[in-house]
Amino acid sequence: MGHRFPMANKSFGQHFLNSPTVIKKITSPLPEGVDAIVEIGPGPAVLTPHLAAYKKPIFVIEMDERFVELLAPVVGADNIFRQDALLFDWKAFLEKHNFKSIWLVSNLPYNVSVPLTLSFLRIPEITHMTLMYQKEVAQKILPNDPRNAMGSLHAMCLSQFELQHVVYAPPGAFVPPPKVDSQVLGFKRKANPDIPLSDIDSFESYLRLAFGQRRKQLGGILKNDWGAEKTQTALEKAQISPQIRAEALSYAEVLKLFASSR
Ligand SMILES: C[S@@+](CC[C@H](N)C(=O)[O-])C[C@H]1O[C@@H](n2cnc3c(N)ncnc32)[C@H](O)[C@@H]1O
């Protein structure tokens, strides 16, 4: 496609997309009703021009200062945040701009993809996301085979979003090619989340406890933290056997047990 990439900086997890098919799948269509687009880690403006073409307000957050010069003509110098996306001040950004429905797009740097996803799900104004992951991580968020696949990332994301597979990206879709396969997922915020955001921290602690030792029996794991009485009452109320392994729980059971534990 003739895109000329600067030298990739490995410490920033840089692998630039070089596949028109994958780029198109990530950047289209514009989700209905969004009033702004935020791209994390735009690098040398690979996805960015396709997103800017929608003529919505567009902002980018990029750590590597070498790219500012390439991004400025695409999004405007004032719309570039040259910083770590993990430290981005969403509160200040939203107070200033008052957007109600943001589409967040990113070919995420693999080392920060999970903490970033967990932070985005806490920002209700982010209504749509299209995010690239290492395939193993994407499979934890949205397993192809849902049997015995329950885990904390899946439950956390599903509590706020409808999830869908968008496209696989083999190593050859990038320059330089990473050592792993990648997968892009689409997220659409549920109008009524299964867990209100005010409870999301407790839900996350509960999931970390229940899925910290996925292959052990659930009753034993919970008892260590909750004590015998609370564990027995909660499991009975949710009609779940203490002998079950956490990974075999259905999503409905995960929600029921959380509700029963409170
Ligand atoms: C995998 S590359 C993707 C580049 C481009 N968007 C593409 O699709 O080809 C990840 C980009 O994220 C940037 N980056 C890495 N860690 C970051 C962080 N914590 N916050 C913001 N940007 C980061 C890197 O400098 C790099 O440009």
CATH H-level homologous superfamily name of the largest domain: Vaccinia Virus protein VP39
Count of spatially separate domains: 2
- Count of helical stretches: 11
Relative strand content: 15-25%
What's the overall average pLDDT, rounded? 94
User: What Rg, in angstroms, do the CA atoms define?
Assistant: 20 Å
CATH architecture type of the largest domain:
3-Layer(aba) Sandwich
Helices and strands, in order, run as EHEHEHEHEHEHHEEEHHHH
Structural class: alpha/beta
**CATH topology tier name of the largest domain:** Rossmann fold
Estimate the helix proportion, in percent.
Answer: 25-40%
Output the CATH class name of the largest domain: Alpha Beta
Spell out which ligands are present: S-adenosylmethionine
List the strand order in the largest sheet.
4-3-2-5-6-9-7
Q: Which regions contain 5 or more consecutive residues with pLDDT less than 50?
A: none
- Largest sheet features: 7 strands, mixed
